[in-house]
Amino acid sequence: LSLTISNQVDQHKERNRQGSLRHFGILNVDFLSQITSNMVSSVTAEPDAANQQPRPHEEGYSLNPRMIKYHNTERDAWIVYNDKVYDITLFLDQHPGGKDILASHWGTDVTKVMEEGPHKHSKFAYKILDKYQIGVLSTANQTEEGKTADQQRLEQLDRLVDWRKPLLPQVGNMGEKYFEWVHSFPTTDHTVKMFQNEVLEFLTKCPWYMPLLFWIPIACVIMYQYFHTVKFDFLSFSSWLVFGVIFWLFFEYSLHRWVFHMHSTTYFMNIIHFLIHGHHHITPLDNNRVVFPPVPALILASPIWIGAVQLFGYEHGYAFLLGFLVGYINYDMTHFWIHQKVPKSPYVQGHKTRHVYHHYHLPDCNFGISHPLFDFVFGTHVGDYKAE
Questions:
Q1: Cβ neighbourhood burial of 276 (10 Å; 0-12, 13-18, 19+)
Q2: With 90 as the cut, is the pLDDT of residue 98 above it?
Q3: Cα 237 to the chain's mean position, in Å?
Q4: How large is the average pLDDT for residues 144-173?
Q5: Which residue of 127, 192, 202, 245 could cross-link 327, Cys pair, CB 3.0 to 4.6 Å?
Q6: CA 225 to the chain's CA centroid
Q7: Cβ contact 85:60 at 8 Å
Q8: pTM
């Protein structure tokens, strides 16, 4: 019976692999319940076989420990943590450290690995894991009292919104609870719906390559016009270009720390914050909401564009703006890469480590994404991750 259930679950998962499964653990339980009820008549003839039938449980199904070890492939990956069983197949490609590091643990109990090393997992990592629970070990005795205070608090925050409805009006009504909620990482479905209107909802999304298609032609036009208008001085051009890059780093840090992480409590400020950045902390794995859409970026950059030319003059101003633009493109591509990919370069790995810590452990640190320069300047850099 267990093998038959496993095979049918595999077929069910394969049919849905291309889609986005909301609350996958619950879907698994519903499906298991359906196919189990259809098969009961075939097993009740033999009392011993009937006794092996998975039993409904408040947290999924009660599963035999021997069954887990057979689910140990990339297309069928189960793990056990604290006597709970999880199907993490659909999460493998989203794991911040990549799926390869998980391969040796498929079909095993990962309790010791998760709690002792090679690094500490945040409470949000366990929140992600909860979404993929399909049952408990048949030898386990899980109770509500066994939950930690953090787990109970996160569940309370979960209930502040109805995930089936657009979130913007709901976050506005949260008041002072919004700031804690938005950093509680309450969903792992990789996307949220913000607007009821589908056109507005579409405009909140931006594929990673769109900034390149929008800004690189603009950079080329600037360079063409610049070199055909002024007498080129390599030292002057390089100096102002570097100045533009450094100013971008300061601008990136300031925007991220004092605007994107402002402490909002009112109806409209909660909505504005969620629209510009809060949604990213709720769903950091959403690959269509990582880079900044070109149109709002252009609006935000216009005062700097106009002010640089007015303040520094044409020759120095456009060299500065080109450096500023290079810094911005580097930021957007770095941000996307460290969220959606597993970097091979130690340099980019360092960026990913810092930013993952910002998302999953301590949001009040490591505000610099493309470089930690101003985190060091303002004392917000945290680098001793293992000690934490």
A1: middle
A2: no
A3: 39
A4: 78
A5: 245
A6: 40
A7: yes
A8: 0.69
